Input
Amino acid sequence: MGKLEINRVQKSYGQAKVLKEVNISLEEGGFLVLLGPSGCGKSTLLNMIAGLEDISAGEIRIAGETVNDRSPKDRDIAMVFQSYALYPTMTVRQNIEFGMKIRKIPSKERSAAIEAAAEMLQMTDLLDRKPSQLSGGQRQRVAMGRAIVRNPKLFLFDEPLSNLDAKLRVDMRTEIKRLHKRLGTTIVYVTHDQIEAMTLATQVAVMKDGIVQHLGVPQEVYDRPANVYVAKFVGSPAMNIIPGKLVDSEAGATVAFTLPNGKVGRVSGIALSDEARRRYQDKPVLVGIRPEHFTPTKGEGINVGIDVLEPTGPDTLAVFSLGGVEVIARLEPFATAVGEQLCLAVKTDKVVLFDPETENRLN
Amino acid sequence: MSRSIPVKDRIGHFLPKLVLSPSLVFVFVGVYIFIAWTIWISLSSSRMLPKYDFVGLAQYVRLWSTPRWHTAVENLFIFTSLFLIVTILLGLFLAILLDQKVRAEGLLRAIYLYPMALSFIVTGTAWKWILNPSLGIQEVVNNLGWESFAFDWITSPTFAIYCVVIAAVWQSTGFAMAIFLAGLRGIDSSIIKAAQIEGAGLPRIYASIIVPMLRPAFLSVVVLLSYISIKSFDLVLALTNGGPGSSTEMPSTFMFTSTFRRDQMGVGAASAVMMLMTVAAIIVPYLYSELKEGGHEH
Amino acid sequence: MSTDLVSRQCYRLLGRLVIYGGLVVLAAFYLMPLWVMAVTSLKSLDEIYGGSFIDFPKLVTFDAWAKAWGTACIGTVCDGLKPYFLNSILMVVPAVILSTAAGAMNGYILSKWRFRGANIVFGLLLFGCFLPFQVVLLPMAQLLGRLGIAGTIPGLIFVHTVYGITFTTMFFRNYFVTIPDELIKAALIDGAGFFRIFFSIMLPAALPIIVVSCIWQFTQIWNDFLFGVSFTSGEASPITVALNNIVNVTMGRKQYNVDMAAAMIAAMPTLVVYVVAGRYFVRGLTAGSVKG
Output
């Protein structure tokens, strides 16, 4: 088990910079999720932690030791891959045993470790099968078993659930979480699925274009995204980003939106520093409101006309137009009907504001 | 996305190249250095033994003023075009027939393809016997009652080259068929269903949809058959030995006889270089396109 | 309605008839030379000169086979094909093993340990597959002479190995490319090195392509004539050269039955391989057309 430190790490292929100064520190026993779309550099970063790719600049430390120049086998890590990467000609037992054999662990200890891992992952009866005889979920288990027996300082997961179907993905997610609780090993986990990030992580690093956009605990990333990109990437449906204007008001910061009928709607009481209020007074801002932070009200609110309703079961997504963009609100089923006018209140303490130019958060 | 996998250890870093290089050196010497060497000889006055002087293009001038070489080039042209056309048509026909969910497909395929497993020398020997006018096909047909039937191409300077075509087609059709069949099997069957729903008949579907989709297969077949025909040597030697006279001479046999039988090493080298240039003109663009679009996947 | 149905069934039947008719006629065409070779080799010379070449022999005799194998004259030596058959085996076995082993290693490196310029190296190797060998005959003869293995079986083994590597490398490289890189990464993290990964993981997974490569090389080298006739003479010749000599150099009445028996003997090993492992043979054949 160990702490992971990534200090000013860069990666470039010739002229192309794939990673631009990444700084991440993960406490011992932490669960870091690298989240981002394909091509954002998250897998490259993971491969660099594993030692499968060179580090162009900066340093990576595992348990306090710089590992830049160590080969993968000397880093005391284990890795689980998206394609499982099980050796096709070996049985499950041989797959799990392979790394231990190379490390010359006595055969008695090997068998004990295999038995223990198999029991933990409930795959004792699969040990003598070949990977081709296993289902996707079973292969995933074997891949995890192979990592567990190594008892490493650091577990690396590279999109481990992407090849599974939706139902199995949820089950395996729970299993990984349970495993983390039980073993307490530090984990770095790469995914493009924001739900996996939210459910598993103790820390999330949202990445784009080789830059960490936001590093923080999941709830913070969700509630107070560092910029518009993070706001839109995390959460489904995504956070609404509505163009508005900061106007003068007594009750905290107030933003004004243009309604489709030409009138103006206002949301007041947004927390914002005095300095920012002065700077953005009467200037355009981007207003971020999560769909669940709209509620129908009899009192004061914004009047909108509902264009489309999408029932999802537990709740209904209502689509309307505000500030010139399409906005989604998560409402209770049957709260409204298409074509109806609805007055919506906004949970103002959850509203975040962004600069329209830099797209960074203001408050 | 297959990126290099760097290994930190110093030895580890060079190990792959170290292991690769010995065989690579042999192959590169055997291919590229030897090509250069042959070009060099073709620019020298070598006759019986190699002589490393420089006479410019004199050997090429000699080559192109040799009537036997003209026959060889002419024959190559006749042979290649006929061999390609017949083999492709027959191979495609067989592939389409076999693709109709026929019984015993495996057996039939094996029958069409087995000649590819034979040596051209064996093929030549067999066909020489079959085409021989006094005891072969001609005799059989004559005995059946068609007394005037004559099939003595193999002894005729004008027609002997067509005998080579027959034997070569017999040997190579299975190869064309195999590639076309692989191409046909790769076509999404829902396309055929879609066309059937639109009311197209089977011949129509093949002519306007499926055969055009086989373009990559056509390309491969044309390139590989051209290569086979340019280098074909054993078959000619075994079937006609270049004769009657020098009527079935081909560039490959010309090169061999000039070099090893007539002590005209320079001319032989020049003819070999001409062959190489012809092959390169076909193969290099083909390899280039295959490597480029094929990329790393497949 | 019903007549429509009947006519449609008629069409279907007719279509099937055309398909099977075409297939059977062509199958007969492709089988005919083999048949002719077989029956001729089993006839006596008198029957050949007296009867039809396509008929089954009235009296089956293996004399021609015995003669082709043991006593037919090649040049001035009358030992039949036997010594040359042995030559071919002594040449084929090492050449197949060497070229396949080297190709497997090369393919592994070119697909899994890619370095700058690996694709160019591969492209240059591929061109070697299409080399018209006439262009290397002269220098190779010189080199073999200098190495002191001109006109010998080891010389032929060397030549076939060098030019075979181009094909075997292509086979293995294209096969290994389809094995996910993650497998290598997993093995690296497990602590396996370059050779360990090759022998423990890649090679066991490459069994089918090893068979393809061996069969392809076996067929190519066994059937080769150009190198054999260029670099050897007399007693060191491979079987194809000996066969050609038997057929082309005869005095007196031409012994077609011996010629055909000799051709059958020369064809037998590759035919057996084809019958036993045809699937792999076809794979090697079509591999030349889909490179990537």
Remarks:
- The mean pLDDT of chain B is 84.
